[in-house]
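Quarterly update from the structural biology core.
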Amino acid sequence: MKSFYLFSIAFAFFFANAFSTLNAQNQPEPSEHPYWIEMMQDQNANFNATVDAFEAYWENREITKGSGYKPFKRWEYMMSQRVNPDGSRPAPDRELKALQQFRNTRSNQTTGGDWEALGPFTVPSGYNGYRGLGRINALAFHPSDENHFYIGAPAGGLWETTNHGASWEVLTDHLPTLGVSAIIVDYSNPDLILIGTGDRDAGDAPGCLARRRRFKLGS
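Predicted structure, tokenized:
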């Protein structure tokens, strides 16, 4: 049985509560130190407080390339649509639990049946974008079979090919998120795969946290 573990890219790193102990330890003020970098990656940090720390830091500073300003604003836009009214963040496994609850309540009901794609399958001639291309965030290989590898899409899930890309099979349509930004194949047991969920640019898809939880791929 091929199985994998998944974890949230958005919450891959956790930091000490530097901002909450700011005054007690006589640390620099938010206008002098970028506490917002630590806070945006801390599940327990309040969203509103994080935005306040960010705005305090940038109030009298010039915005420069590579400073982290734009990535934070993308994160702020994404999170603002997901946080609770008081600024607290939803549990990382909220969607996964909701999906499991839905499956439990619908276990005795029939499914929606089979679906067939009807198109359209061609790009209009006046379209100026990239034809037939999608964004890929991750790539991983089987340790002994060069024709067998995986790709992860930020809004398209985990895909597997066993014939060097001639055909592909999606493995994560049963999950509550379609974003995949990291893939690790266990070389001692290639049937065990770990994926980091969510779009690592924090735009297209949120992450789904499931610590030490095993799933059958494609189930």
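The longest helix spans residues 47-58.
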